[in-house]
Structures are given as structure tokens and as C-alpha cells.
Amino acid sequence: MPLAFKFALREMRGGLRGFYVFLACIALGTGTIAAVNSLAYGLTDGIRAEGQSLLGGDVSFSLIHRQASAAEESFLRERGNVSVAATLRAMARTGDGGQTLVELKGVDAAYPLYGEGVLLSGRGLQTALGGGGERTPAVVEDTLLETAGLSVGDPISLGRLEAQIVDVIEREPDRLSGGIGFGPRVMIPIDALERSGLVGTGSLVRWRYRLSGFEGPLDDGSLAGLVAEANGAFPSAGWRVETRTEAAPGLRRSIDRFAQFLTLVGLTSLAVGGVGVANAVRAYLARKRGTIATLRSLGAPGRLVFATYFTQIVLLALAGIAVGLVIGAAAPPLAGMFLADLLPVSGLFSLFPGALALAALYGLMTAVAFAIWPLGAAYTVKPTALFRDDPQIGKRAIGGPIFWATAIAIGLLAGLAILAAYDRWVAMIYVAGAGAIFLLLRVVAQLIVAGARALPRSRSTVVRLAVANIHRRGALTPTVTLSLGLSLTLLVTLSLVDGNLRSTLTSRLPAEAPSFFFVDIQDREKAGFLERLAVIAPGAEVQSQPMLRGRIVALNGIASVDWPETEASWVLRGDRGITYAAVPPGESEIVAGEWWPANGPDGNEVSFAAELAGELGIGVGDTVRVNVLGREMDATVSNLRTVEWESLSINFVMMFSPNVFAGAPHAHLATLTFPGGGDEAAELAVLKEVSETFPTITAIRVKDALETVNGVVSDLALAIRAAAAVTLIASVLVLAGTLAASHRARIYDAVILKTLGARRRTLVAAFALEYMLLALAAALFGIIAGVVAARFIAVDLMELSFVFLPWTAVGAVATAVVVTVGLGLIGTWRALGEQPARVLRAL
Amino acid sequence: MQDHIIIARDVWLTFGRGATEVSVLRGADLTVDTGCTLAITGPSGSGKSTMLMVLGGLERADRGEVMVAGQDMMALSEDELTAFRGRQLGIVFQSFHLIPTMTALENVAVPLEIGKVANARDMARAELAAVGLSDRANHYPAELSGGEQQRVAIARALAPRPSLLLADEPTGNLDEETGNEIADLMFAAARERKQTMILVTHDLELARRCDSVLRVSDGRLHEASETGVAA
């Protein structure tokens, strides 16, 4: 056994005193990263494993607006079992005159090809939907029953279809392939859709054709062959093809992004914990000064002493990491129990060695990176320490190798954080920001010390003691400033991001925002509908626009899939709402090129949203090829226009010249805006009237839709807060550890002063003042750094607007002062109440 | 064998700078014959422990010449000094300075293990037996009395068979009776092993047991005339 290892084991017999914060910091940070990554791995595995049931088949061909042509459908039916499903938004009306926006889905007898639809009653989905009766059977999600006050057996109307709720959906295997739902799911037999009148020209219906092999699942080779064959046979079908291997790509992207964000939060807790590590190592070595000096006097070279203590730190870190890994390993199955209704959790009930190894590596590298520098003190302790208190100890220059070892360890840690990140640019900014904050806090600490030293001597004993404690040798100032400054920066950042996210979604609903979006207005009913709106909502502003859905197939002849990845790549991924117009929309400004003449241009022209065009890298004169209703059309970008997405009025990425879609069947989209915003009663009256008079028009109430989005955001915010709480716990632990490390010396000083006649009240007031001054200085830094960081996250990463929320900052300052003074005074107060001699003997 | 194990000439050492500057050694000279015992006495703060540290290579003189066991201490690097100490010097401290997390046996074995001696534990066990502590080998320092701790410290200092034993107030923390026992032990060991021993002490009785006694004053070593022993 190497001598350093032998000595390390002997030294560790002394117990873990002073290392609890160290262990907790490493365990918390490692645990967070292990848990987050295990969850992400597990969910991604689950999506892969359940790809078929999530997608509803081995491969899915989906079309918007139109059903597959006879040729397309027979092509598919010749190659496997096909299940057809159609999804759309519609109004469900109840017998008592209520109406609710629902996500309607029509399914055929083959549904689902994979997985199982589970109903509350326990009977099969097809049995429930195949039941005869006067009314069409419908199975619904329980939220519809709750919100509309319905129960099984009640009738509901969907468009012109009279249906009856026959059961409650417990699980819909392909639920996640539909994205965020704005209402509860209602499922009916697909043939009933025809009778509902909801499927008209240009209606926003998505038709999905899912396919599985005749004899079990298709293998990857035949799947790829089939996709290539289908695209070759129908190059202009305009369908979106997804295979089981890439099911739920949006969800996977979200999981990856979210995991990255939470990993950064986990890294922050490790970085904060790193301060705890450094403090613990520094305090430990100070306690071990005698032992180190003894070893040196007995002929132990500096490197042996360093290796001995380095080994101890690594062993302790491994213990903390082990605890963290247990937490990380336990998280996925625990989360699986809670998320079973929301996400594919089948992958969560196993271990994820990759995620655990990554977390362990982070934990170990953090411990090493933060421990090497204070461990360097092992080199500087000389045997003379055994004879006298050497004022030079701790001030001696730590050698080059220690500096370089520290630099390399920190570099490796930063490199790992960047390399393992989903978005390396964000990770690089994070690393640079964290580094800057560490350096700045050091400078701030030095400024505080220098400031305290430069202050004129006060006549008040309390002030004099407090100020002297801030700048004396061995003062707490650097460590408290660092740990408190980091925690406060974090607290302010997270609170401000959270606050801005919420206020963007709630209070930023502009006064001129419409109350309703009406979709699927057919040509023939458009005039009657608009007239009716003018009667039931006099004074309200109504805008309408032709509405089609289409996909961008190519830009400048380059296929969308091959276009370079940019911020705006989402525009190229799915279907976009598109429209045409003779004149530019009133609220838009043409920033490049010119709008086409009122009598129409000679060729096909399109106006593109300026910001997105810039991000995509296209401009005036470029060509855009879109596929709408199975037809591909080229148009030249003739102008770029500004779009105020936040106004919530009708906005389109692309507006075409009217000639492009002349004769194409389509529906219309309309908005209704009450002057000064609508009240509840007026809106509900419109909703009721529209859904009764125009049952096939779907009314989406903006407030309800925003509430749904808010709900999703709240769930995300909750996860962010949970992760942030871990980081805050780490910082409070570090702060408590910092204060505890100096506790003995502090009580010693206090008792000596008490022996000399200082009153308990005076001493406590002096300590409280010292802690308060430090807390205020750290709070000031925390607010400034937190505002900068929060602004960056909100504006540059989340593309929100940013408002400084002063009360949030004040709350952070108050918390800092209370926590620091509270933690600082714990123990001191009690010790001061006892007889000096007794306390001195115990120390 | 050399005649002089220590030759120190014109040794100067100053601590601090500016207002806090203290010149502790100011041209101290010392010559010690191999195998003899020497006591250095003097008032607190006179520099006697500092002189011991300079001789032990624990402190480096600002200038002057320090030869120990034929080695120019001023020419050695920090690591070379450490290695030299491990081979040639045994040091006994007033406060024992045992490592609290190690047993008595392990404490004695430390310098042997550092020196990569093959049978370190067996040799340590023999040294413990020599100071009469065989039965306390597996006790931790906190479980030993002051006298026992100092015996362990002596065993530890003697274990590598050093040519020079330095002791800083070895009986300072002990009662008179225990102090005498410890002194007996040290003198007996020095005699048996023909080791040179230098003691720093306030205790004149202890000093008188040495072959010679020097007194530190004004940063130099002087003959302690009252003892009648010549330097």
C-alpha cells in the first residue's frame, strides 16, 4: 500500500468533523446531476422503447387539411396494416348550453396498432366506440367531465354530431404525438367525423396514417425502404413522415434542453459546494497544522504530506459522490411513479450508468479543482510551526505546480461542462459567467477589507469591534462574501427569471389582444358569421384572414432538412399557418423590398417575417417552396415585414400574393377584440352564441389558451424551483459551514473580551453588525450580478422582455441579512451566557 | 568518526521586518564534539529554541556557517534538508507532538516508514519496548499519560538511529518525577548508542547532567560559568 494512502487512512480515524458540509455539498451536487441526467436518459430510452405506441405505428404519414388520395392510401395498405386517425380542435356543447374547446380525435377500427387504449371501465376501446345506439359513442378525458360538469352517459354535441359519453380515457397510447392540447381529448369513431360537419374545405384537420408490418413490426431496413419508396412514388404528397425511431422529436428536444438547464443548475450547486469543499479543506489543514509539521520534522517530504491529504479528500469526495449516486439512481423510478400519466416512463425503472458516471466525474473533478489550492498549504507548513505560531503560514507563496494543477483541474471541469452540454454555446457562457462571478467576489471581498481598514476609528465599541473583525487577519470576509455572494446572485437570478416569466405570460396580455380566435370558418358561412358577430358583439373589432396550413419544403432550392440549423429552424420543421393578402397588414412595417401592387404581381410572391428571415439567412429575391394541400409552389420573397407576435393578433410567418392560392380551397381565421379587453360575461355570451349558431366553427378563447400554457409553464417553473432549491440548500450549508469553522475562534475572542468586562449585549451587537455589513455588501453584489445574469437568461436565452422587480431584490437582501446574522449568532449567544472559565476550558 | 558533529560559525537570524524586526541570533558560534551531551539554557525569548531549529535544519540562518554531521546545512534545498533530518536527526519536543490519529506503535514507525525501512513495524516495536511501553503499543496518544507520550516521542526520535538527538524542553510539560524518568531514559539512550544529544532547557538540574552547558544571551552562545563547565 502506498505510504500516502496508509497515512491517509490513519488520519481519517480522526472522524469526519468539519467535513459534513463538504460531504453534503458533493452529495447534493452529484445527486442533482445524476438525477437530472438519469431522468433524461430514462425518458429518452422510454420514448425509444415506446416509439411505436407513441407514434401509433412503425411509421406515420400525416397530412394537414386533406385525406390521403385513393392512390396514396392503397399504396400504404399494400405495404402493411394501416390505422387512420384524424385530430382537430372543436367545440363540445353540453345539454345545459355550456361549451368547451376539446381536442377531437376520430379513430378507425384498427386503432391503436401498438399499445393499448385504457378506459376507466376496463373494457376495450374498440368495444366502447363500436357500441350502437342513437347517439355516436364518445370516450373522453376526465378533465372534460370535471370542467363541464358532465358524467358518463351524458350527451354532448360536436359540430352537428350528437354524441354520448360512454367511457373515460385513462390512457391514450399515442397522446404525446399530438403536442400540447388546449382542451381535453374526446375520441369518436372516424366515420362519425364526416357527419359532424367539422371536416370541411380547408379545415384544420390532421390526418394520420399509421402503418405496421403485416407480420409484426417492420425492421429498420424495410422501414427506410418504405419511406424512400413512398416519397419516390408521391413526391408532392406534402406529408410528414415519422418513423418509430424518431417518435416525439419535439419532446426529446425539450427533454434534452431541460436536462441541460437543470444540469447547469446542478453544476451551480456543485460550484457553490466547491466553495464549501475549499473552506472545509482549508479549515481541516489548519487543524492539522501540528500533524503536518510533525511529519515534516520527521523527514516527510512536502509531496508525501500533500499526497496524504489529497488522498483523504479524494476518499471523502468518493463517499459524498456515492451518496449522490444513490440519490441519482433512486430519482428515475420515483419520478416514474409520479409522471406515469404524463410521459413515457417505461424506461425509468432501471439504472443509467452513463448518467451516474458523468455525475461522479463532475463530483470528483469539482472536489479536486476546489481542494488542490487549499491543499497547497500542506507544502507551506514548516516544522517550525511546532515551536511557535508562524505569522507567515498561509502567506507563503504556493508553488507553481499547485497553481498549474488547480488551473488544469478547473479547465477540465469547465471543459467537461461544455463538452457534455446540449447547447455548448450556453454552457460556455455559463462557465465564463461563473468564473467572472468567482473572480469578482474575490475583488469585492478585498474591497470590503480595504474599506473597513480605511474607515476612521469609531468611538462606539460595537462599531469598532465589528469593523476590526471585518479586516483583521483571518477574518471571515473573503469566505462569507464568496458563499453569500454566490447564493444571493443565484437567488436573485432565479427569482427574477421566474418573476419575468410569469409576468410575461400573465400581465403582458395586451389590452388590444383579441378575446377569441375562430378557426375553420368555411367560405360559405363567412359572411353570415361576421354579420352575426357584429350583432352579438357590437363595437368589437373583428378581423378575418384566409387560413391554410403548409410546409416549407425548400429555400432557394435547398431542401428544408438540409438548411443549416439556426435559431429559426422551427419554422422549417412543421406545418405553418399561411395566408394571402392584397394589401399589407396595418400593424406591420415593410423593412425590406416592396409589397406587391394592389392588382397583383406577375409571379408568385411572398412576404416573410423580417426577424425570422434574418435568422434563417434569407432575404428579398430568395425563393421559398411550400407544399399546401399536396401541391408544391414556389414564390419569391418580395419583402420582409415586422411582426408583433406579442400582440396576439393574426400573425403569419408568410403572407403570399393572392394569385398563389387562387382557387385553392381554404377556410378562414377570425379574431374578435373587445375595445379595452373583454369581460367574462361578454366573452361567454359570444362563445355560447357562436357555438350554438355555428357549431362547426371552433372558438378558442385566448384567456383559456393562455391558462393552459401557463399551466405547462408553472409545471416547468416548479421543476426549476426544485432544482434551484437544491442549490440554495448547498449555499446555506456552505455559509453555515463557513461561520461554524470560525465559531471556536469567535467564542474565544468573545469570552476573552467578556473577561475584560465587555457585556454580552455589546459583543452580540458587534458580531451582528459585522455579519450585517458583510451580508449587505454581498447582497449588493448579488443584486447587480443577479440582474445581469437574469437579464441574459430572460432576454437572450428565453427571448422574453426583462423588467427589474425591486421587491424580489429586497426580499433577497432581507433573506441574506436574516440568514447570515441568524447563523452567525447561533451558538455565540449561548456561549456568552456561561461563565468565561468554563467556556475557555471547553475550547 | 568526526571529532565535531556540529560546527556553527557566525550564525545570524532575524525575524520580521521594519518595526517588528527582531534579531534573534547575532553571530552565534558553536562547536559540539561527537558523542557528547550539551545543554543550551537561557531566558524565554533569548533564542535557544531558534538555535536548536537552525541546528536541526528546521530554520535556515540568514547567514553564517552551519555544518551538521559533515553536511553544510546552508547548501541543502528544503527537500534535501527534510531527507537529511529523516536520516540523521531525532527531535523530541516539549509538547510531544504525537500524531493523534495514530497508535503509539504507528507513531514510532512513521520516520522508519518515511525512510522506507523494510521492517519498520518490528523496529518500532523494539523501540517501544526499549522505553518500556510494549503493552501500550496499540493505544492512541489521548489514551496515554504525559510521561508515556513523551516516551513514545523519544522512541520515535531514536527509531531511525540518528547520529544527533535534539530535545526542546523535553521535561517541560511533565511533573518532576516523570521528568526525571524521561531524562534518565534519554541520557541512557544517548550513552548506549553513543549519540550526540543537545537539550534546550530551563531546568538547571537537567542541564548539569550534560557534558557541557551553554547559555544564550544577546543572540550568542556563552559558557555558562555558574555550572563550571567549559564550552
Task: Give a description of the structure.
The complex is a heterodimer of chains A (843) and B (231). In chain A, a hairpin with a 2-residue loop joins strand 6 and strand 7. Chain A is built from 27 helices and 21 strands. The longest helix of chain A has 40 residues, at 702-741. In chain A, the strands form two sheets. Chain A has a six-stranded mixed barrel. In chain A, helix 2 (20-49) runs antiparallel to helix 12 (353-375). Chain A is 54% helix and 16% strand. By secondary structure, chain A is α+β, with helices and mostly antiparallel strands. With 231 residues, chain B is an alpha/beta fold. In chain B, 33% of the residues lie in helices and 26% in strands. Chain B is built from seven helices and ten strands. Chain B has a six-stranded mixed beta sheet with strand order 6-7-8-3-9-10. In chain B, a hairpin with a 2-residue loop joins strand 4 (63-68) and strand 5. Chain B starts with a strand and ends in an 8-residue tail after the last strand. The A-B interface holds A 3, 6, 10-14, 290-291, 293-302, 304, 382-384, 386-388 and B 49, 53, 56, 58-59, 78-79, 82-83, 85-87, 91, 93, 95, 97-102, 106, 110-111, 113-115, 156, 160, 168.
Biggest interface between protein chains, with counts per chain? A-B, 26 and 30 residues
Query: Strands across the major sheet of chain A, in which order?
Result: 2-3-8-5-7-6
Provide the spatial order of strands within the biggest beta sheet of chain B.
6-7-8-3-9-10
Mean pLDDT of chain A: 84
Q: Report helical residue fraction of chain B.
A: 25-40%
Tally of DSSP helical segments of chain B? 7
**Radius of gyration of chain A, whole Å:** 33 Å
Q: Please provide the ordered H/E string of secondary-structure elements of chain B.
A: EEEHEEHEHHHEHEHEE
Radius of gyration of chain B: 17 Å
Determine the oligomeric state from the structure.
heterodimer
- Main sheet overview of chain B: 6 strands, mixed
**First-residue to last-residue Cα separation of chain B:** 21 Å
End-to-end separation of chain A in angstroms reads 37 Å
Shape of chain A: elongated
What is the overall silhouette of chain B?
A: globular
The portion of residues forming beta strands of chain A comes to: 15-25%
Kindly state the number of beta strands of chain B: 10
Structural class by secondary-structure content of chain B: alpha/beta
Stretches of chain B where pLDDT falls below 50 for ≥5 residues? 226-231
Strand-residue fraction of chain B?
A: 25-35%
